[in-house]
Amino acid sequence: MTWKLGIVGGSGLYAIDGLEDGRWVAVESPWGEPSDAILTGRIAGVEICFLPRHGRGHRIPPHQLNVRANIDALKRLGCTDLVAVSAVGSLNAAMAPGDFVVVDQFIDRTKGRPSSFFETGLVAHVPMADPVCPRLSALAADAVAAAGGTLHRGATYLAMEGPAFSTRAESRLHQAWGCDLVGMTAMPEAKLAREAELPYALVAMVTDFDCWHDGADVDVTDIMAVMHGNAALARSMIVKLCASLPATRPPSPIDTVLDQAIMTAAQARDAASQAKNSAILSRWLAKGRAG
User: Fold this and answer.
1) Nearest to 90 by CA among 204, 198, 199
2) Alpha carbons 202 and 111: distance in angstroms, whole number
3) In this structure, what are the phi and psi dihedrals at residue 50, rounded to the nearest 5 degrees?
4) Which 8-state DSSP code applies to residue 10?
5) Using the 8-state DSSP alphabet, how is residue 197 labeled?
6) pLDDT digits (tens, 9 = 90+) for 90-123
7) How far apart, in whole angstroms, are the C-alpha atoms of residue 225 and residue 137?
8) Active-site choice (36, 210, 222, 270)
């Protein structure tokens, strides 16, 4: 199998360098409008599909992202793996503004966001004990290091609803829970990527210490200044990652996670739900599991 890498760009990462034959492609999804058209092309011979998570110009706030449409659109374009880049606040004194962190765990404190492709008539429960792909995360971490970034491997990311930043009490609570980072976008993105059988890695760009740190409030002006510096390194990381990928993509257990996840009996499945999930279920359906 060949690689086709989906890149979801977070705050500050709205474009991508070194792309050959780049063109913006509008993708229709039964889940509604994705955040933007998707920029396709190649880097170091690897096919890339780049989606600016908040839309070009940063139009969409985190709590109104249509994450199901975003993941569905990337799946429809044939992506095999997904690397997300996100700006985060730090709850860990060792993870300073300007640092990069490759996340390995999440705590989901979002609310009111659709978090599954599976609804009444088609039930599935995917495993999430280890919510990122270790192979892809290691490759992404090596690419950050190759690009010259200050790197931390492994961290717990708390996903909050937003769009307001944490209260000081919340920030200190999250820190007491053992969280290292706080952000607003990685959930339900990681869950939906798993349901779509897309190995997922998250590269977090630290823009600030959350308000536990020194009694100061989180300041958007300061965040944006760090974010712009981080974005240049993030773009370099993507180029390094593409150049480092093995020529042939070995299979991942995540590629077939739905084989042990779908619970609804064949005779009880809702045809409309199954059709709506045609991209997510494409491999599963091709195996004749439609019933």
Assistant:
1) 204
2) 21
3) -105, 125
4) -
5) T
6) 999 999 999 999 999 999 999 989 999 999 999 9
7) 26
8) 210
C-alpha 115/C-alpha 67 separation (Å) is 8
How far apart CA 32 and CA 281 sit, in angstroms, is 18
Q: Which residues pair with 200 in a beta bridge?
A: 82
210 is annotated as an active-site residue = yes
Handedness of CA 283, 286, 289, 291 (dihedral sign): positive
196 confidence band (pLDDT: 50, 70, 90)? very high
Hey, which residues does 90 pair with through a beta bridge?
A: 181, 209
Give yes or no for a contact between 218 and 88, defined as CB atoms under 8 angstroms apart. no
Are the C-beta atoms of residues 255 and 193 closer than 8 Å to each other? no
Tokens of residue 131, six digits: 């919510």
One of 130, 180, 208, 270 is an active-site residue; which one?
208
Residue that the structure tokens 């969280």 belong to: 179
Enter the pTM of the model: 0.94
Chain position carrying tokens 């985190």: 62
Radius of gyration of the chain (CA): 18
Q: Is 173 left (phi over 0), alpha (psi -120 to 50) or beta?
A: alpha
Domain 4-286 has CATH 3.40.50.1580: yes
